[in-house]
Amino acid sequence: MNMIESSDSAPVYNTITVGAGSILLVDDTHVLRERLSMAMQQRGFRVETAGNYDEAIEVFRAKPTELAVLDLRMPGKSGLELLRAILLIQPRTRVIMLSGFGSIPASIDAVRAGAVNFLSKPADADDILSAFVRGESPAVPEGAIAFPAPSLARNEWEHIHRVLSDCGGNISEAARRLGIHRRSLQRKLRKRAPESPAVPDPDTETDEPQNQ
User: Fold this and answer.
1) Which of the four, 111, 144, 157, 182, has the lowest number of CB atoms within 10 Å?
2) Start-end ranges of CATH 3.40.50.2300 in the chain?
3) Please, how many CA atoms are within 13 Å of residue 185, restricted to the half-sphere of its CB?
4) pLDDT digits (tens, 9 = 90+) for 45-73
């Protein structure tokens, strides 16, 4: 029996199920970009690729696409800046934002800027196309509790790992860019990620003092 026809098989996303025939993939990691490009072509899409903001704008102006997948953090201008520029050129393009350092504030910023969804890496072709099908959910539902800002320790941890990723895992180069000693960086890398501030639960909050 054809596996695609089996009721137990995973959904297969393609140009028909997504309702679009072209997609722009922007990521500064060449291997990831090419892997996603091949997977999208196999699903019937016309695929355009770019490695940074400037390349993406040039490609998109020449060959606009119905969908776009943007890396949030790239050398030069960010994916958020690229998102805004793409929507100025072609407001009907649907955009998914990807990030290797996913966070609630970043996802809210992306959706507010016009992205239909936000995914954390790693995300494969079906993850991305499924997100296009699901569409946009409100970033902050009316009446919901606001998410607390990340702590300074959490921001530092994310920044260090982002710089290390940009350096391809080269600790010496990352330490140079961060302006700290290599051994200091190694000590920081051995630490676990700091917890983000907890969102208070209104059903459990009380003004009564706790028993000592």
Assistant:
1) 144
2) 3-134
3) 20
4) 999 999 999 999 999 999 999 999 999 88
